[in-house]
Amino acid sequence: MKYLLFISIIFFSTFSNKESDYYFDKYIEYENVENNTREYFMFNENSSDYYFSFYFDFNNKLSGVIRDSKNLKSHHFLVSNDDLGMKFTYLESTSYLLKEKNKTFKEYHFESTEKKIDSVTNEVNLLKFNNPKKKKLSKAFDIVYEKNNILIDQRFLNLFCHGYFSNTDFEFSIPLPKKLTVYHNDKKQETYQLTKLQKINTQLKVQ
Known about the structure:
- The chain has helices spanning about 1-10, 105, 155-160, and strands at about 20-30, 35-45, 45-55, 60-70, 75-80, 85-95, 110-115, 120-130, 135-145, 150-155, 175, 175-185, 190-205.
- The protein is mainly beta.
- The protein has 2 domains: about 1-95 and about 195-205, no CATH class; about 105-190, no CATH class.
- Strands 6-5-4-3-2-1-13-12-9-8-7 form an 11-stranded antiparallel sheet, covered by helices on one side. A two-stranded antiparallel sheet has the order 10-11.
- It comes from Flavobacterium lacus.
């Protein structure tokens, strides 16, 4: 029931009483097929510098965070309901630093291949190795997308692999994934299926 309520009210405009604007024009849902759970995000179609992720905290309260990769900031919110719809209460902002690029980092090697599935659908296979000789596979992605005008870059994948691309020189851009499969080095697999893409008009203000 909580998920149904959440979905029904998210598209009402919302704000807080702080400074600095973040504008979101797209809302998306992905289903984690293996875990039978859902991931909820907001983003700006014209900027990959920041995303908003919804989650339930340890007290089972709906919360959210803006991850701003340009300014290296995380802005945290408590999300609740009022008579106007969804209300975002600003909590705090924290800074994060990228790790120093050491020798190990410089030896990471990325490899990608792409194939056409049909007239509108393509699949990208992305591999990351721990060294340029490709002796040890660190992680792999299968990304299925349909041709559209919504482009994402490598920072979007951080939403599904906990900042995995935050400290790399690797860059790429593709349309918004319809399906995303993450293969971890412990042989665990997670598949995310796009279930909702909707236009919104939401602005959040933070310090």
